[in-house]
């Protein structure tokens, strides 16, 4: 993403925060009619899901649960220091902070400060390891890594592919990326294909992923059977690297089922992705935030990093099940947005109308 675009988006985010500051404070009360403010703080703009799906779905569910509640939304644009402006949300009167951290370690200070002021923290999508939040809502990230890795290995075996693998992991400052990486290695290590090289993409940057993969293409020319990329952004960067090198694109994985990734799968450029019905996790986070505002104790399914947690199971998506999963009742994408003129023929071939 260009620097100028980033600057404009940060300006929009800052304006939204200032607008929230102008709102008249409300206070949290006990009972089903609890009102108050909740902050929804997302980590980056490199993944389009946060702006397109997570934030709108969370706001919608909060409005259904509590017409008197206000949501303070902010996206840190991959800047951990900007995310420290959670302090601003608390100053505005937020009683609960739903936080998807840029830096899982740095986020511990946000949790510490919030809890010292009686503000509850819900870790969202990515865990906060060093200082337990009050609750954690996410998909099973280790299972995500294992699923995309196994799916790729099985496909390569079926097609009798030759060569080794590249592995493009997520941000080294993201604990969720570490879990995905662990899951990938569970599937890849001993899977029958040599791991040629792996890379942790700073801030999940598609551009950094593309640059690194470009170097590996030159080093391992003709020897790359597939690439395990930890999300759709890094997967897209990987595919761009092969196309820029005028090399055939091998099977490449992804995660998040972003619109562009779904189109790449339809076109045959990307092998798989992970469908994480964001509606499920966004609504779950809103439910938990609302319960915490009422002084209730949300029900946990398990405990992760000493934090009560709800972890939902991911679904691997390939061309074989894309129609059913992506455009089913839990899907957020619409065929008219996916099957544009460029992809219309491929959509028809897959029976997507």
What features would you highlight for this structure?
alpha/beta, 12 strands, globular
Report the principal-axis shape: globular
Average pLDDT, rounded to a whole number, is: 90
Integer-rounded radius of gyration: 21 Å
Distance between the termini: 32 Å
Describe the structure.
- With 353 residues, the chain is α/β, with parallel strands linked by helices.
- 44% of the residues lie in helices and 18% in strands.
- The chain has a seven-stranded mixed beta sheet with strand order 2-1-3-4-5-11-10, with helices on both faces. The protein has a three-stranded parallel beta sheet with strand order 7-6-8, sandwiched between helices. The chain has a two-stranded antiparallel ribbon with strand order 9-12.
- Strand 10 (302-304) and strand 11 (307-312) form a beta hairpin.
- Helix 8 (206-219) packs across helix 9.
- The chain is globular.
- The relative contact order is 0.12.
Topology:
Elements: H1 3-21, E1 36-42, H2 49-65, E2 69-75, H3 80-83, H4 86-91, E3 94-99, H5 107-116, E4 120-124, E5 135-139, H6 141-158, E6 164-169, H7 175-188, E7 195-200, H8 206-219, E8 224-229, H9 232-244, H10 259-267, E9 273-275, H11 278-293, E10 302-304, E11 307-312, E12 315-317, H12 322-326, H13 335-338, H14 344-349
Parallel strand pairs: 1-2, 1-3, 3-4, 4-5, 5-11, 6-7, 6-8
Antiparallel strand pairs: 9-12, 10-11
Condensed summary:
With 353 residues, the chain is an alpha/beta fold.
């Amino acid at each position: 993403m260009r620097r100028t675009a980033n600057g404009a988006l940060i300006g929009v985010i800052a304006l939204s925060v200032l607008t929230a500051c102008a709102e008249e404070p409300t206070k949290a009360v006990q009972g089903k009619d609890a009102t108050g403010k909740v902050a929804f703080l997302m980590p980056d703009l490199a993944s389009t899901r946060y702006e397109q799906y997570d934030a709108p779905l969370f706001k919608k569910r909060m409005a259904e649960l509590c017409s008197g509640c206000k949501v303070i939304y902010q996206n840190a644009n991959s800047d951990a220091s900007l995310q420290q402006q959670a302090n601003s949300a608390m100053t505005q009167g937020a009683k609960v902070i739903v936080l998807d951290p840029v830096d899982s370690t740095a986020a511990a200070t946000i949790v510490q400060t919030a809890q010292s002021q009686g503000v509850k923290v819900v870790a969202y999508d990515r865990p906060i390891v060093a200082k337990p939040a009050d609750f954690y809502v996410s998909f099973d990230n280790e299972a995500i890594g294992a699923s995309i890795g196994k799916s790729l290995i099985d496909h390569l075996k079926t097609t009798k592919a030759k060569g080794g693998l590249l592995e493009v992991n997520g941000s080294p400052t993201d604990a969720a990326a570490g879990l995905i990486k662990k899951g990938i290695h569970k599937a890849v290590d001993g899977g029958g294909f040599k791991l040629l090289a792996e890379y942790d993409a700073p801030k999940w940057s598609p551009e950094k992923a593309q640059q690194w993969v470009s170097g590996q293409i030159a080093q391992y020319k003709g020897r790359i059977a597939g690439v395990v990329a930890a999300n759709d952004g890094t997967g897209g960067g990987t595919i761009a690297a092969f196309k820029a090198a005028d090399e055939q694109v091998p099977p490449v994985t992804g995660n998040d089922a972003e619109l562009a990734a779904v189109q790449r799968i339809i076109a045959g450029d990307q092998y798989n992705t992970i469908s994480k019905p964001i509606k499920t996790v966004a609504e779950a986070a809103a439910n938990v935030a609302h319960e915490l505002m009422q002084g209730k104790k949300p029900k946990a399914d398990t405990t992760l990093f000493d934090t009560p947690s709800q972890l939902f199971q991911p679904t691997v998506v390939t061309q074989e099940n894309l129609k059913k999963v992506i455009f089913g009742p839990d899907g957020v994408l619409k065929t008219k947005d996916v099957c544009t003129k460029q992809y219309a023929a491929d959509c028809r071939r897959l029976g997507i109308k």
